[in-house]
Amino acid sequence: MKQAPRKYANYIPIRELHNKERQLSPFQVYAELRENTPVRYDEHRECWDVFRYEDVQYVLKNPKLFSSERNRAGTSMLTTDPPKHKQLRDLVNQAFTPKAIEALAPRIQEITDELLAPHLSGGRMNLIDDLATPLPVIVIAELIGVPATDRREFKEWSDVLVKGARDDSEEAFQELEKEKLKNIQELYAYFTDIMEQRRLKPQDDLISLLLDAEIEGEKLTEEEVVNFCILLLAAGNETTTNLIANAVRVLSEQPELQEELREHPDKVASAVEETLRYYPPIVAIGRVAREDIELGGKAIKAGQQVISWVGAANRDGAQFEQADQFVSDRKPNRHMGFGFGIHFCLGAPLARLEARVVLHTLLQRMEQIQLVPQTALEPIQSAFVFGVKEYPIQFNERRV
């Protein structure tokens, strides 16, 4: 089997996580790496891995030393550095004010109730397919301005954007790159068509707002609008789906938490934050060194990839007491589940809101939530995402 070339480093899991069981629960592996090789070079993937909280935070908060730019077509906030990054973020922030996000709460509750209704009396549902996946898809689609008839295709595009390769061969990565390129081309055509419609007839949606947004006399280009929509599609859907699924996974693995949060609903928000630390949807973030630099006693050369393992940093005992325990009301909780620094997730308030609404609703409408017995969990096929493909649950309906 040929080794995959360097540009695929972000797609390949570190060698210690090739085992499925370890992918489903990688945190002991992270602990060993954080303790024994906090900064190390991986010859196979030709990149650096960083595991300690202090080092991960240093990488993510220093864009002058560690760049987000990639050698790929298109420009989005994820792949730009200052000052371009700030310009893009200031423009799109107009659509993501706290007031604008909080105003979505009634609609998110309505969608949640509609998705749950067919399953409550039966006492069983596939959490991911029936709720955790469609909810953020519907919310993001409505925000952007995607018609309801296109949601299924919308979700399929989202899945491809975050998909990982089937194995470590160069052929598998070439196949993945080809699939992703086709996916991006389809998305460009799709969003370009919607933009043309909105230019003729603006609506109350994100594309219309972005086309009209202006800061210091400058508007987003067509390419930037499309790239932002693609970014929202990938990050908004997948991250929120896994945040919701991971939170319910914690509740089913630790049943005592269900009653604790049911009796103290004011703890739901902090439990969402603890999920982001304990079972983060994103476990690794890539950067490229801008110059030769020393980190953790290791010499990193300009141009080399640096992978910051947020999943390891979030369990660092030097930063968190009882780091391997789920503490529902942990304060302070300086996790990096949404990243850190200038690229801190723009959609974090929306993801938090959706997760809070879902958890509160599940706890009020269900009790004794548990994974369906004999379920063999399958990890998501991605090196940087932590989650499972399916999570069927059974429960007793609560009458409210």
Automatic annotation (TrEMBL):
UniProt keyword Metal-binding present: yes
Pfam families: p450
CDD domains linked to this entry: P450_EryK-like
This protein's UniProt keywords: Heme, Iron, Metal-binding, Monooxygenase, Oxidoreductase
PROSITE patterns: CYTOCHROME_P450 (PS00086)
InterPro entries named in the record: Cyt_P450 (IPR001128), Cyt_P450_B (IPR002397), Cyt_P450_CS (IPR017972), Cyt_P450_sf (IPR036396)
Family the entry assigns: Belongs to the cytochrome P450 family.
PANTHER family: CYTOCHROME P450 YJIB-RELATED, P450, PUTATIVE (EUROFUNG)-RELATED
Protein name stated in the entry: Cytochrome P450
Species annotation: Paenibacillus cucumis
